[in-house]
Amino acid sequence: MFGLEDFSVALAYLLLLIVTGVSVIYGIRKWNAGKEPGPEELEEEKKWMKHNLELEEEVSDGGVS
Amino acid sequence: MNLYWLVVIVVVYLSVIGYLGYRGFSQTKNSADYMLGGRNIHPYIMAMSYGATFISTSAIIGFGGTAAQFGMSLLWLTVFNIFFGIFIAFVFFGKRTRRMGLNLDAHTFPELIGRRVGSPFIQRFMGLIIFVIMPLYAAAVLIGASRIIEGLLGVPYIYSVVIFSILVAAYVILGGLKGVMYTDALQGSIMVFGMLVLLFFIYTNLGGLVSAHTALTNLADLVPEGLKAIGHQGWTASPGLGTPLWWIVYSSLVLGVGIGVLAQPQLVVRYMTVRSNRELNRAVLIGSVFILLTVGTAFIVGSLSNVYFQRELGEIAIVVAEGNSDKVMPAFIREAMPMWFGYLFMLVILSAGMSTLSSQFHTIGTSVGRDLYAGGELTKDHKRRRELLITRIGIAAGILFTVFLSLRMGAGVIARATAIFFGVMASSFLAPYFASLYWKRLTRKGAIAGIVSGIATAAFAFLFLHGSEARVFGVAAKLFGRETLLGGSWSFVDPLVFALPVSVVFTIVISLVTSVEDKELVTKSMKGM
What confidence tens digit (pLDDT) does each residue in B382-403 have? Predict the structure, then answer.
C-alpha cells in the first residue's frame, strides 16, 4: 500500500488519511450544531472578556488583546 | 539567497502583521461589545490560530529532521496529532473547558484547575512548574527558527538565535498580539501554503508517491551502524519491537507528544476564546487538514529527503546535515528547493516560530504573575500593579533563559526538548484536568495528589531511569554508581509511561477516600454542561 511494505508504517499513512477524513466529515455534519449563546451567557462572556483584556494588558505595553 | 530581497519581504510581512495587530488593538480597546466581537470569530480563524500556536518550528524543523533520521514510523505522531490534538481536544476537552472557563472566570490553565477545586495552591504550583519548564519548549522552537536562518542565510547560529529572539521579544512586549487571532490565522495560512508547495515538490521530484516511497525503502542498507544497533530497520519500516529506538519513537515521540498536547497550557486557553461549541465543531474540520498538511508534510519530506540527498549528493540526509538532525530541513530547503521557495519558507518559519513563541512567553508571564504570585486572588490596585510588574519580569526572565538554553543545548535536541515538555505536562496535569472537566467526585486533595505524584514520578524518572537525561544530571551515577537504575531497552522508556498512570491512580484513589470540599463549587463549575 502506497509503496510502503511495512504494515505499521502503511497503516499510519492510511490512518492519517482516515482520521483527517473523519474529522472533516464530523466538521461538516456538525457545521450548524450547537446553539447560539443566550443572553445570560453573553453577559458572562462580556465579563470574561473584560477580565481577559486586563490580563493581556499586564503582558504587553501595547495592551493588545 | 539575496539578502536585499529577503529583508524587503520580511519587512513587508512584519508590517502586515503589525497592521493586523493594530486593527485588533483599536477594535478591542473600545468597549466590551467589541471585546465580545473578538470572541465571535470565524472557525477558520480559530482553527488556524490554534494550529499556528500548536505547530511550530519544533515540529517542522526538529521533528522533520528526526523523521529524516528515524523514518516514516513518525507518521504515527501525525495520526495522534490529528486524533488527540484536534478531534479529542476540541470535542471532549475544548467544549467543557470553554464552559468551565466562563463559569469560573478563569483565564489561565492553572487558574481553571485551581478554581475548579478551590485551591490557590494548585494554581501557584502549576504556575511554578510551567514557568520552570516552558523555556525548554520555547528553546526548541527558537532553535528550529535559528537553524533555518543559519542554514539559508549562512548567518552564524549564535547570531541567528539573538536576531530571532529580539524579533520575538519586540513582538511580545510591543504588541502582545496574543489575542489577535487574525495574525495567528495569517501565519497559519502561510504555513499551510508553504508546506503544501513542499509536499507537492518532493513527490513530483521523486517520481510520484509510490516510487518515492519505494526508493526510500531501497535505501535501508544505508542506515548508519549506530542506528541499526538500536533497532533502525530502514526509513519506511517500524523500529524492531522493544528495541531502544522503538521506545524512543513510540513512547517519547508518538505517545509523549501525541497525548501531551491535551494538557498544554498555551493551547487550553485557546478553547476559552471561542464563542460557542459550534465554532469548535467547525474547527475540527479545518484543524485536522491544517495538521495533515503541516506536520504530515514535514515528516514525509524529512524522510524522503534521504532519497533526494542520496541521488544528488550520494549521502543520506543525516550525513549531509553533519550529524545534526536539526539541520536536515534547512539543508534540504537550501539544496533542493528553488530560490523563491527559500523566501517563502523564511515566512513560514517566521510565522511558525513567532506565533508559538509569543504564546509561550505570554504563558510564562501569566504563570509567574497571575498564577504563582497572585494565585488568582488579588484585585486591589497596588497589588495588581505588582502583579503586572512580576508578569513582565517573568517574561523577560523566560526569554533570557530560553536564549541561554538555545545556545547551550547541543545538536539534534529539538524533538527531545519538545517531548520532555509535552511529557511533563501530560504526566502532571492531564489526569486532574480531565477529572476536573468530567468527574464531580474529584476532590481538592485528589487533584493535588494527581499533580504532585505525576511531577514527582516524572522527576524521579528523569533523574534515575531515563538514560538521556539521567546521564546529563549525573545524580544516579553519583548515588548508585551507574548512569540509570534500569538496564537495556528499559532506560529508553519515556518517563510519561511511568508518571501518567501514577498520576491517574493518585487522582482517583485520593479523591475516592476524601470527600468533595465544596459541592456548590462543583455545581457552579459544571453549570451548563
Answer: 677 788 888 888 988 999 999 9
In this structure, the answer to whether residues A10 and A21 fall within a common structural domain is yes
Cell 504530515 found at = B296
Amino acid (1-letter code) at residue B294 = T
Tell me the CATH number at B508. Answer: 1.20.1730.10
In chain B, the N- to C-terminal Cα span, in Å, equals 55
DSSP helix/strand/coil, B466: coil
* The one-letter amino acid at B202: I
- Report residue A51 as a C-alpha cell: 477580565
3-class SS of residue B406:
helix
The alpha-carbon gap from B13 to the nearest alpha carbon of chain A, in Å, equals: 19
**B237 contacts A6? CB cut-off 8 A:** yes
Nearest to A33 among B32, B233, B281 (CB): B281
DSSP 3-state of A4: coil
B75, B107, B282: residue with CB nearest A13: B75
Q: Are residues A1 and A21 in the same domain?
A: yes
Torsion sign (Cα): B241, B247, B252, B256: positive
A47 touches chain B (CB under 8 A): yes
The ipTM of this complex is 0.87
Name the residue range of residue A8's domain: 1-34
